[in-house]
C-alpha cells in the first residue's frame, strides 16, 4: 500500500461502506508515475464463508499499474442486524449496522 498516493491514510467515513468503487477525493496522484487519473480495480475477490461476505480488491494506477491500496468490505447478519464494514487506505474506514426488522428496536428505545 502506498501512503504517498493519498491525502489522508484511512480517513474516517462514518457509516459509508463501499463494496465497489474508489474514494477519488482522497486520491492525491500516483507517486510512481506522477499522474492523477482514474483508479482501476483489480484482483477482485468475493468470498462467502460462515455467514460472512468478504469482498477484497486492489486500487491500481491506470497508467503504470502501481498498487495504491487494498480494499476490504465485509457484510454479515448478527442477531437481527446487518453489519457492514470497510477498511482501505484510499477509501477509509467505516462501520454500519442496520436492523432487519421494519422498526429498529434501537431507535424506539431513544424516545
TrEMBL record:
Gene3D superfamilies with a match to the protein in the record: Transcription activator, Churchill
Keywords of this entry: Activator, Developmental protein, Metal-binding, Transcription, Transcription regulation, Zinc
InterPro entries membership: Churchill_sf, Transcrpt_activator_Churchill
Q: Which GO terms describe its molecular function?
A: zinc ion binding
Presence of the UniProt keyword Manganese in the record: no
Q: Which domain of life is it from?
A: Eukaryota
**A biological-process GO annotation:** fibroblast growth factor receptor signaling pathway
Q: What family does the entry list?
A: Belongs to the Churchill family.
Please report the name of this protein according to its UniProt entry: Protein Churchill
Amino acid at each position: 500500500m502506498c501512503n504517498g498516493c493519498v491525502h489522508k491514510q484511512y480517513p474516517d467515513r462514518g457509516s459509508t461502506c463501499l463494496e465497489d468503487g474508489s474514494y477519488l477525493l482522497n486520491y492525491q496522484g500516483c507517486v510512481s508515475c506522477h499522474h492523477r487519473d482514474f483508479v482501476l480495480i483489480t484482483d477482485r475477490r468475493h468470498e462467502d464463508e460462515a455467514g460472512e461476505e468478504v469482498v477484497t480488491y486492489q486500487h491500481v494506477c491506470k497508467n503504470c499499474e502501481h498498487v495504491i491500496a487494498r480494499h476490504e468490505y465485509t457484510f454479515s447478519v448478527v442477531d437481527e442486524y446487518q453489519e457492514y464494514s470497510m477498511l482501505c487506505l484510499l477509501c477509509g474506514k467505516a462501520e454500519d449496522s442496520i436492523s432487519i426488522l421494519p422498526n429498529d428496536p434501537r431507535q424506539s428505545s431513544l424516545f
